[in-house]
Amino acid sequence: MAKIKTGPKVKRKGGGIPAKAKKVEGLAEELAGSVSLVVTEYRGLKVGELQELRRRLRPRGIEYHVVKNSLFARAAEQSGKSDLRSLLAGPTAVAIGDGDGVDLAKSLVDEARTLKALRILGALIGGRAMSADDVTSLARLPSRPQLQATIVGSLQAPLAQMVGVLTAAQGNLVRVLQARGSQ
Predict the structure, then answer these.
(1) 105 with 154, same domain?
(2) Is 0.85 surpassed by the pTM of this model?
(3) How many angstroms separate the CA atoms of 82 and 32, rounded?
């Protein structure tokens, strides 16, 4: 019996793992490691506007991904963030931040003001699901450094006043003694 010759074996890209499964796995890892994320609808944005948006967000530590809803739902399920499934309707993109959730919210609300087609659908910040209105309210808060400076200033003011009162009494005593000595 003659052997039939076949062409060379073709290896699949990704070492045998289908591309979609690999994408879901990578996204699930990124979701699991993220502190905060915001889901947006990008319908109406041009490709150039999306690229510019990514370019402006990246220096702030924010990655902006356009993902198919079905793949994103699987990744959210794998990463334990299944609360996000309710936000997946229409063409969605997710902004993932590794820093402060307030900074992420502020960045996206600012970008949504600039790009009228960008619409915030909701967020998962600090393990808590938030609506679009909650994200907008969060964006109005001062940043963490501003809040810390306010607290430090509030704590420092009474101490500075107390030091002023104590040194004023000593200063008055010194002036009285100097006046008495000059007589």
Answers:
(1) no
(2) no
(3) 11
- Do 70 and 115 sit in the same domain of this protein? yes
Please indicate, yes or no, whether residues 64 and 126 belong to a single structural domain of this protein: yes
Name the amino acid, one letter, at 89. A
For the chain, the farthest-separated pair of C-alpha atoms sits apart, in whole angstroms, at 133
- pLDDT tens digit string along 74-133? 887 877 776 777 777 778 888 888 777 888 888 888 888 888 888 888 888 877 788 888
Q: How far apart are CA 166 and CA 174, in angstroms?
A: 13
Q: Are residues 151 and 130 in the same domain?
A: no
**In the chain, how many domains are there?**
2
Task: With respect to residue 155, please indicate whether it lies within any of the assigned structural domains.
Answer: yes
DSSP conformation class of 37: E
Amino acid identity for residue 29 in this structure: E
What tokens does 3 get? 């052997």
